[in-house]
Amino acid sequence: MELRVLGIILAGGKGTRLYPLTKERAKPAVPFGGKYRIVDFVLSNFINSGIYSLYVLTQFRSQSLLQHLNEGWQIGGILKNQFIISVPAQMRSPGEHWYQGTADAIYQNINLIEQAGPEVVAIFGADHIYRMNIAHMIADHQRTQASCTVAAIPVPGKHAHEFGVIETGPDNRILAFHEKNPDAPRIPGDPDHVFASMGNYLFSTHALLKALHEDAANDESSRDFGRDILPRLVADRQAVYAYDFQTNKIPGEPAEAQPYWRDVGTIEAYWEANMDLRAVKPSLNLYNRQWPLRTNSYPDPPAKFTFDDEHRRGEAVDSIVSGGCILSGGRVRNSILGRGVRVHAAASIEDSVILDNCDIGRRVKIRRAILDKNVRVPPDSTIGYDLEQDRRLYHVTETGIVVVEGNRTPVDISSVFV
Prior knowledge:
Layout: E1 5-10, E2 31-32, E3 36-37, H1 39-48, E4 53-58, H2 63-72, E5 83-88, H3 102-107, H4 110-116, E6 120-125, E7 128-130, H5 134-144, E8 148-156, E9 164-168, E10 174-179, E11 193-204, H6 205-216, H7 225-235, E12 240-244, E13 261-263, H8 267-276, E14 304-306, E15 308-309, E16 312-313, E17 315-317, E18 320-321, E19 326-328, E20 331-333, E21 336-337, E22 342-343, E23 348-350, E24 353-354, E25 359-360, E26 365-367, E27 369-371, E28 376-377, E29 382-383, H9 387-393, E30 395-396, E31 402-404
Parallel strand pairs: 1-4, 1-6, 4-5, 8-12, 14-19, 17-20, 18-21, 19-22, 20-23, 21-24, 22-25, 23-26, 24-27, 25-28, 26-29, 27-31
Antiparallel strand pairs: 2-3, 6-11, 7-13, 8-11, 9-10, 9-11, 15-16, 30-31
């Protein structure tokens, strides 16, 4: 069966809990896993699922994100139905205001849906680290003839207070929503788990347009899908179903592989998700050629490891090292290095995430830290070894992860010969 599917990606989040990584960029533009950005996951999921008509809605601190989309995600040209178009907030509401919520973001761009005339609209966030075969979810949406399908992931019931929980019947039809309620109903037949909403939705177009217009006319609405649109559809006895993310299968993955989804809304969660990549058999496999994680094709040279003296050996163990890095006699263990990182003689990096173009001086020691782009660490410095000292200089989380603010990347511009 062929379906006209329009994808709309909500990529305007501030990501305040990821500060200072979001000081100069929106959360979807935060680098991840060496060479990627968080937004690359949702975009790759759409493209790998065969959905090529995409709008990306931006808002806060969008320059870094827009530049990444422009450099790495330009498709189309000959085939006009294949496009990834960035849509900045345009204040198309009568009050000329920024987006008031997720539903308002779609309502202010309702013309995009009306002009495209799709049969299904996929509305996905850009804030999470995960892989998903969206075509499988669409097939489930069509099978149930749903007005709306909500992607849901089982989580232990003890964490119900951390999520928007979906109450379902045995057939996964949604009965109610429970926002961060520790006593939320468990999954039928599974008393130990609840369904947590992933913030990803499929809508039949007619149902979506009707719901958006009704929500815009309701002065008491908070303009949010989870708090307003979806509960109202359920109350009106619309066919709203949960899609169990645990049933999602990715081509090229072993049959026993478990679906991977992480909310990287905090520094700790972001650090842990990066650390997940270091395992011999990581939960998130970046090496599946049938389901590639796509990003900008950077013209970086290969990584290089130099010197082999006893106390001056360039090496990396249980780590990811991106293109353009040079480990000049330094040692990296259990860490993620972004593009163009320089690690000088006798330097040591452990359990850390080092973003692009950082320069780690001689004999520097870094442990359990995140360094944003373009940080220059002077020789003989230590980070992560004396947290009291680190707190005077950097941002330190409650669990002791040190975050060092970076510097803006210079922009090359052309010259005029006069």
